[in-house]
Specification:
The complex is a heterodimer of chains A (195) and B (105). With 195 residues, chain A is of the alpha+beta class. Chain A has 2 domains: 3-67, Alpha-Beta Plaits; 81-194, Alpha-isopropylmalate synthase LeuA, regulatory domain (Double Stranded RNA Binding Domain). Chain A has 4 helices and 9 strands, in the order αββαββββαβββα. Chain A has helices spanning 3-14, 45-56, 116-129, 175-191; strands at 19-26, 31-37, 61-67, 81-88, 93-100, 103-110, 136-145, 151-159, 164-172. In chain A, strand 5 (93-100) and strand 6 (103-110) form a beta hairpin. In chain A, helix 1 (3-14) runs antiparallel to helix 2 (45-56). Chain B has one domain. Chain B is 49% helix and 18% strand. Chain B has a 3-stranded antiparallel β-sheet, with helices on one face. In chain B, strand 1 (36-43) and strand 2 form a beta hairpin. Classes of the chains: A alpha+beta (195), B alpha+beta (105). The interface between A and B is medium-sized, with 27 and 25 residues.
Chain lengths: 195, 105
Amino acid sequence: MNGVALDQLELQVRRLTGVLAVGFVESDDLVLVEVQAGPEAYDELARDITVLASEHVRGPVAVELVRWGDGGPHVSERRLRLVELTTDPGAGDLTVRLARDEEEAVGRASTAGGLPAAVEATVAAVRAFVPELPYLPGWARTVETTPDRRFLVVSSVTDPFTRTHRRGTAEGATPIEGAVRATLAALNRTISRDL
Amino acid sequence: MTPTNESLVAAARDGSGLATVYRALDELVDLYALDDAAVVVDVPGFGRQVLHAGRRPLRDDEQGLHDAEPGLYLQPPLDDPVLNQLMMALGTMALRHDAGAAWGQ
């Protein structure tokens, strides 16, 4: 992505109401646009950023919107947390254990699918808490490996009926852990009211 | 002129305002061997804005920059009021300049 396009995209995104910061991670096959937004941010902000990004970026682009504050009394959101991630090379499967307070659930997937198996197992575990979850597993990609061997991963889930995609980014000690945490990041914001 | 100054001036001459601010932040990081640098500005038409060295995402924003007052934020901190003011001025002018340039297109 050339500098001029990057400047134009960043400038336009910064002019959207509520935007506080814009950052980019570029890999060979994906541009990740991370936007931090304050309490003035409006509901359709993510959509507007995605439209701008797709106008300025050739090829796959992922947008992550991080919202801060809600302008009202702080109410802590319920979130699912990762308890354990195990792989069994002999059986060829991957197990993700999530928790909501003291309650736990497990999701499994075949490791034959590669990194997307982490998304699949995580979505399966989330569905145990939110049976009506509309999102299906999508993809996961490692977009950056840090010098201290941490892996930054983007993952995507899709609602096939509304054709909406939710993407999250997270770091992990392995790409699989990063993908599980990224999938949780993608889903936790939308399922908190259902938990 | 040192090579650092030279490339910063070249960015100001040929590049955008945003590119110049990021160049300045990156060169501060290099010059003082910093872990990180960011400048927070409040610009009419944009509101409060955080510009982070390397155009990198803030991710979990461990420094709390999303809620920070305008100023220059360096890790580790460096107490230099003139540098602080210059970087805030540069960041403010950069956004105003780029917005004006985009408006004129």
